[in-house]
Amino acid sequence: ATGGGPAFDLLRKRQGVLDRLRPDLAALTVLSPEPAAGARKLAARRSMRIQVRGTGRVGTVIASVLSAAGVGHVDVRDGGCVEPWDVAPGGLPVESVGERRDTAAYRAVRKAAPDRPPRPDRRSGPPPSQAQPQPQSPSESQALPPAEEPALSLVIIAPRDGLSAHTPDPLAAEELITSGTPHLYAGVVEATGVVGPLVLPGGTACAGCLSLDRTDRDPTWPRLLAQWRSGRQLQVPACDLALATAVAGLTAAHALAFLDGELPSSTGARWEASAPGLDWHARPVWAHPDCSCGAGGRSKGEQTSEGGEQHDTMAG
Questions:
Q1: What was the pLDDT predicted at 300?
Q2: Residue ranges covered by each domain of the chain
Q3: What is the pLDDT of residues 40-64, one digit of tens each?
Q4: Most-buried pick from 87, 102, 203, 283 (CB within 10 A)?
Q5: What is the DSSP string of the chain?
Q6: What's the CATH class of domain 5-117+136-315?
């Protein structure tokens, strides 16, 4: 009853906030065999920083769920203005149509949060490894000064264009690979929802590995992909609301498992479900030996071991 450490002691003093999070605490307690381990994990979430790239029917719901589950710093990034078809329960409200997407999504995230994130001691600067670039979104500009923000524990890539999640561009994730930032893909393309892979740079397969593997299996794949991307883009892409909500929920669950110190089943794999059957199944994503990420140069045992070590460093 008194466990959880100093961080949970601070949370325990905020009765209204703790009441909001009691179901999550109970769930963590069920999954944690050690006394007060659930309390420590819940308190640790408040100091973590997540970035969600994409504020459509999938991305905004993911960000809101993570915020409501106690993740203290949830950044959102996107461009343009909210369209009527971006609106979704738990995501962007109908009142936000016409507003900047990142501004509206940040407001939704803050509304879902049990409280504001804890602010670090300004008298002591952060470690050099936690220095962050200048703010790029309202969530960053309205939070702590860049030098005092926590390092990113995870980036979730959930573009409104589901093709960019189903067939991600390796160049778009190059900065994440270089910086060693774990990242997770999610989205809906046509009638298929995808969650994963969760990429641990240097330890598990990345977007580059996925692209190279597909090209090995089908040499015409790059040409097909170029045709797919260069075709006339529909103003309103197919994105079933129920499927998008299911994808967002599963993605948030995998993200929370990672933040709590576990390796979810999307690590080096992708979960897919297609309408109308909606049968979720996992497809492995293998590290490619020719990919510059370096994961393909290790055996499966080495990938798992080093991936776990990197996970402990980034998420713990």
A1: 47
A2: 5-117+136-315
A3: 999 999 989 999 999 999 999 999 9
A4: 203
A5: ---SHHHHHHHHT-HHHHHHHHHHHHHHHHH--STTHHHHHHHHHTT-EEEEE--STTHHHHHHHHHHTT-SEEEEE--SB--GGGB-TTSB-GGGTTSBHHHHHHHHHHHH-SSPPPPP-TTSPPPGGG--PSP-SHHHHTSS-GGGSPPEEEEEE--SSTHHHHS--GGGGHHHHHHT--EEEEEEETTEEEEEEEE-TTTS--HHHHHHHHHHH-TTHHHHHHHHHHSPPPSS----HHHHHHHHHHHHHHHHHHHTT---TTBTEEEEEETTT---EEEE-PPPTT-TTSGGGS-HHHHHHHHHHHHHHHH-
A6: alpha beta
